[in-house]
Amino acid sequence: MFIHLITSFIASAGFGVLFNAPKKSLLKCGFVGMVGWFIYIWLVTLDYDAVISSLIAAFTIAVISQIFARMYKTPIIIFSVAGIIPLVPGGLAYDAMRNFVENDYNTAIQLAAKAFMISGAIAVGLVISEVINQIIRKVQFKSKRSY
Amino acid sequence: MENEYSPTIEVIELCLLAGKIMLQGGAETYRVEDTMTRIAASLGIPDSHSYVTPTGIIFSTDGIEPAKLIRISERSTDLYKVTLVNGISRKIGSGELDGKRALARLKEIETADYTFPVYQQVLAASIASGCFLIMFLGQWMDFIPAMIAGGLGFATFIYVHRVVQIKFFSEFIASLFIGILAYVFVKAGIGTELDKIIIGSVMPLVPGLLITNAIRDLMAGHLVSGLSKGAEAFLTAFAIGAGIALVFTF
Fold first, then answer.
1. Do residues B86 and B203 share a domain?
2. Last residue within a domain, chosen from B58, B93, B111
3. Which residues on chain A are in Cβ contact (under 8 Å) with B90?
4. What are the C-alpha distances in Å from B231 to residues A92, B14, B167, B209?
5. Could you report the predicted ipTM of this complex, rounded to two decimals?
6. What is the pTM of this model?
7. Which SS3 state, helix, strand or coil, does residue B56 take?
8. Is B249 on the interface with A (CB under 8 A)?
């Protein structure tokens, strides 16, 4: 597990470099990616489905990114993108592609559907956190107005 | 008469330039539109309309000024520029910067090159590839092959993209190269698991940013940009897959 933490941290920070994130935010990118991957791996080892695990991990990533974006006054996209990268089902998509090439269409379709579900789950996780954020903002706005 | 016209035109130019830099840096569509209308509002044009798609921006103010259009032909990912423009928009909003100085600053940002040097990018890609290999439960023995394949693959991508301006083609070549390298490593006995090495080293090319942006745009109601970004992501994924698949057919 410790190795997972370190590798996911480095991988996410590395992606920060590829996306040319500001140098100051590289460590934070790594941190966001590390937390997301930790939650994903932890849930998967607890025998939860990969789709649910991705959803929860993506949601957590989005929440942390929003907090960071507020704290450092930077666009949220910097943190969320680097954090999301480890969750992207690259392995599954690859397996699907390989089975397609080997004419094993049944397995390929199954794997592709699963990869599609996981990427959908990641997106939904991001959107849910954004919706909650907007609701909180609106409620705050209203309560401030009523005073 | 001339004096009354020029401030508005200047603001329009400022907004378009800000939008252009952000869009080219890979910002989400709603953020680009939001930033443009905010800058316009804080510089005295409350009712402005911006229509942003991945390939062009239309910006118009309610009034007699003509609507202006900017064509975006080249998009990359440069989050640093997005951050800078975001900061400028904040400063304009708080009144720290006036229109003229903001425009000068934006022009500076547009021409400047803030990207990391190529060798650092390649290094980052190769380290990330190695780490992905471990995260996908690969063996430590494959760490070095994945690093080499990932780094060289990314370097190929950058180089081919400079020569041929078609993004999908350079991704195809890069993934083909990664596939061949991984195959050679496994045949030579340096690597053990072909699948894991390829997955790890292909990760730097995967369009993760595009996919998440596409779905967020769709959810935010920017249907045109969402669909076109989704198509771009799909094509990229297909190019990578085709490159790898070609190796397996041998």
1. no
2. B111
3. 73
4. 20, 30, 13, 13
5. 0.82
6. 0.82
7. strand
8. yes
